[in-house]
Amino acid sequence: MKLLGKSLHIANSGKLIARSTKTPSPGAIVFNSDKKKIGKVGYVFGPTKQPYISIRLFKSVNRDEIAKNCGEKLFVSKQNSKKSRRRRMRPRHKK
Asked: Which of 16, 46, 60, 84 has CB 3.0 to 4.6 Å from 55, enough for a Cys bridge?
């Protein structure tokens, strides 16, 4: 696990906003300081040196508890690269 950054707040949409020094891959699993899974990386936005990260929280996570612990360190797992599926090319019809 790698250090992701610190949690800032929970947005009105219910997503956790964090600040990082690195850009994580979308879909990577996010853990709190107790090494419990709390969500997945959704969007990365803002400046490139210190981006903001939108984290989609799992339903089993207590949002009030996370809101109390704003400023705690978050960690990210290494994302397994999935092979992308190639589309089958359709033959072009001649006119």
From this structure: 16
Nearest to 6 by CA among 71, 65, 54, 69: 71
Query: How buried is residue 74: exposed, middle or buried, by Cβ count under 10 Å (0-12/13-18/19+)?
Result: buried
DSSP type of residue 20: E
Q: Which two tokens stand for residue 88?
A: 């089958």
Task: Write the DSSP string, 11-61.
Answer: -TTS-EEEEESS-PPTT-EEE-TT--EEEEEEEEES-SSS-EEEEEE-TTS
**How many whole angstroms separate alpha carbon 69 and alpha carbon 49?**
24
Q: How many residues does the chain have?
A: 95
pTM of the model: 0.78
Look-up of token digits 């109390």: 68
